[in-house]
Amino acid sequence: MFTKRSALAIAISSLLAATVSLSASAKTTLKLSHNNDKTHPVHISMQNMADEVKKLTNGEVVIRIYPNSQLGNQRESMELIQAGSLDMAKSNASELEAFEPVYGAFNVPYLFKDSEHYYKVLKDPEIGGKILESTKGKGFIGLTYYDAGSRSFYASKPIKTPADLKGLKVRVQPSPSALEMVKLMGASPTPLAFGELYTALQQGVVDAAENNPTALTLMRHGEVSKFFSEDEHTIIPDVLLISEKSWAKLTPEQQTTVKQAADNSMMSHKELWSKMTAEEVKKAKETLSVEFVKVDKQPFVDAVKPMHDKALADTVIGPFVKKIDAAR
Ligand code: GCU
What we know:
- This protein is α/β, with parallel strands linked by helices.
- It has helices spanning 2-26, 41-56, 74-83, 93-96, 115-123, 125-133, 176-184, 197-202, 214-218, 244-249, 252-288, 298-303, 305-313, 318-326; strands spanning 28-33, 61-66, 88-92, 140-146, 150-155, 169-172, 188-191, 208-211, 227-235, 238-243, 291-294.
- Helix 2 (41-56) runs antiparallel to helix 11 and helix 13 crosses helix 14 (318-326).
- The protein starts with a helix and ends with a helix.
- The structure holds alpha-D-glucopyranuronic acid (GCU).
């Protein structure tokens, strides 16, 4: 009797072990790299997306997020994705332009009228949707967008007109459009990875930078740049991407879940972004004494007008820019 039970127990336990190893081998872990801090709203929204994916797939798909460029800066992460050795990344559309010119559509200055126009474009299957899909066959696809606010200049002096930029070295994202924009405004662009910017500003390698206000507090740039001049030249989304190799590892059901969770997180991020940006602006003013300067945007708009005309004539981004203009 004793021996029989033992045999049964052994059989059950080996069956259980087989089930456990089966489910363990069915689990897919996806590594996601990005360059923001883990207190940044985009990180929080991607964590919400990862939590939803884990819940809806009963733990079969786990997205592990590596913030602060731990797995490499944006360019390096994109290269790893294309090589198929990293699963996912979040990159700003500005830097993505160097990998896929279609993302340059978002980099045209003063393209969006307001937040409503911007979200309408991102959610439109014929505009935002087509851009995300456009890299199929090139190693990666876009899953969703995250609001990354509007970008303005900050420096150790106010920048009220393009004339105030004359002679300044301005850090830009490594993107052809960003370089062109700053040149047209009269300054010298210096492309640098985001993680190198604090030191570059502190040591005077660059005189100015441009970003949304969260960079002042969350990247501590407000410690070294005390004037944030609200010219709001661009509104460029962050983009969540997955390698095609990792995408193909997921079942069709899992792909649907990941896409749905990504879209949901884009919409919950909308609220989070405006709430957290307002808090960070308050902190920048109160704890870092950053002055927010109102500017007349028209001279900036006029300086970069040739970029809009050129974009409309471009065979890759022209059709998208036309649709974006029509959605105003
Ligand atoms: C934004 C964006 C980052 C980007 C950064 C930059 O903060 O969220 O992904 O790297 O701008 O200026 O480089």
